[in-house]
Amino acid sequence: MILMLAGEFRMIVKILKFLPFPIILALIPLFLPEGRTGAYYQTLLILTVSYATAALGLTVLLGYSGQISLAQAAFFGIGAYVFSVLAVTYNVPYWLSLLAALAVTSAFGFILGAISLRLASHYLALVTIGFQIITQVVLNNWRGFSGGADGISNIPRPTLLGLGISTDLGFYWFSLIVFCGAAYIVYRLRQSRLGWALLALREDEIAAASNGISVFWTKVLAFAVSAALGGLGGVLYASGSLYISPDVFNFYQSVSFFAMALVGGRESIVGTSLGAALITFLPEVLRFLHAYTIAIYGFLIVVVVLFLPDGLYGLLLRGTAALSRKFLTVARPQPARPAPLPTTSAPTARPCATTEPLLEIKSLSKHFGGIKAVQNLDLTICKGDVAVLIGPNGSGKTTVLNVLSGIYNTTSGSIMYRGQEIGNTPPNRVNRLGICRTFQNIRLFPELTALENVAVGYYSKGTVGLIGTLLSRPLGYREEAAARVKAREVLQFLGFDRLDIKAKNLPYGQQRIVEIARAIVSSPELLLLDEPAAGMNHEETAALSQILYRIHALGLTMLLIEHDMSFVASVATRAYVMDFGQKISEGSVAHVLQDPAVVKAYLGDDIAYA
User: What is the pLDDT of residues 74-103, one digit of tens each?
Assistant: First the structure.
């Protein structure tokens, strides 16, 4: 309860910081000149709010999840037309028409997200461009639905509390309220368990999936929410303009939305709003260059990508911080020193294993075309084991871990975990079964803090979905607070205290500790470690061995790949040796290191039989 109230208070404080922005926006029309000029600029303000609402969809899709879309104008148009057809042609009440528009655009977003599941970067952009073009063609030619080039007129405005909102000023304030509600949803999503999943997807899909996040459903969620916000913007546009025609919802408009998000700051709600205002009013300032407006948009995007990765909002924040440092007499905090690896006392007794099988691998093979990376491998990992898989480079060790964790499908063979076949199970489901892993090349989420990285590892323990996150705040807060508390506890258990430092700014050894913490935060039963001591010096390796003892004391069984034999000898209860994709030896570490077949694999025939 205390955690929930604390989370509620923190969110209120954060929201209040941005309160001046909507207040200023609400007061702007009061200072406009009267007559046609004032009415014209009031229309531009309504247009800006509708565009900003639609561009918020790209904040979710592009900023949070890292998915490129050039089809936001398609969702903008679908929302506008579904609403207008229902409200004008069939006289459906305003609010039901709006809900129907959101439902239809969300469905199209779901479909587009599902289609583009395996696509990324420019391929994804091409698919969204295709969807945009198809939508535009349909709206132009399906006269029975869209009215063709003639469009739809006499679009109604809403009635609120029995009062009709018919004036431009009243509708502008109504649109602003709707935009603030949409902005709150986007902000709430960013702070939630689902928001962490979206950010993890943006940073590294493989690492996200290995931490229990469904790449499919997360990507579909991002597309559906983005489409719904695009459709909401379309409804505001249709009601504000009182008339729509297909030529508004074209590829040029999609480029404009993309520019709004990128120029303003793709991950920032305020930045997206600034971008929408800039792109909407820019043609008025550059009216004499109207033919070159899209070229100017392109130039702005290039400048932002090269020099302002955080957009105008990031520039504004840096400028504000610089002014604060210059004019405010505030003591500057000293830069934090890199924290050393934990040296806390830990049990030094060797781990003991049971005879109860936890993981049984039988005749496992993985082929890549004609390359037999793993061939007829048999392994048994018992509860309590700290088993090590060793072998020369290229012997297939990492391939085994990739198969066990679901990143690769098996070619043949069986993988039994707690008596259940898990071969070819997706990585997120493998994680939920109780198998977590680290990677040979550290795969943290660079733009997330150490605490957020570890909290992502707790994702599989949550149950509250999108609706619960947005509508049932106590449930959402409870899960988020539990994830943060658990992440903090695990990091402290490992002796790590740099919680709010972005992962990309941590030294290598600290990144490895964070990755291990992320793997154990959900309390798995089997931990897969791919060369955890790689790149560490002797002191760091000794500290890591103590960490593994402490983890093992929690009841975890471990299978690790390692080349450092002194490290292996200090932690392993059992060793397996691979060469050319096959197991050539197994037993205690001392036994396998004296096996002639192992000596031959590592050192060659001349040494083995000298």
Answer: 999 999 999 999 999 999 999 999 999 999
Whole-Å CA distances, 9 to 3, 12, 15, 383, 455: 10, 5, 10, 44, 21
Amino acid at 209: A
Contacts of residue 303, defined as CB under 8 A and 6 or more positions apart, other chains included, come to none
Sign of dihedral through CA atoms 70, 188, 184, 85?
positive
Give the separation between CA 257 and CA 70, rounded to whole angstroms. 8
**Inter-axis angle of helices 168-191 and 20-27, to 10 degrees?**
170
Q: How many CB atoms lie within 10 A of CB 243?
A: 12
- Residue-range definition of the domain harbouring residue 203: 32-248
Mean of the pLDDT values across residues 235-259?
Answer: 93
Q: Is residue 62 part of a domain?
A: yes
* Same-domain check for residues 412 and 518: no
**Statement to judge: residues 108 and 240 lie in one domain:** yes
| Separation CA 552–CA 353 (nearest Å) | 10
State if pTM tops 0.70.
yes
Domain co-membership, 464 together with 578: no
Note the pLDDT tens digit of each residue in 89-144.
999 999 999 999 999 999 999 999 998 877 766 788 889 999 999 999 999 999 88
Q: Is residue 303 part of a domain?
A: no
Q: Are residues 131 and 92 in the same domain?
A: yes
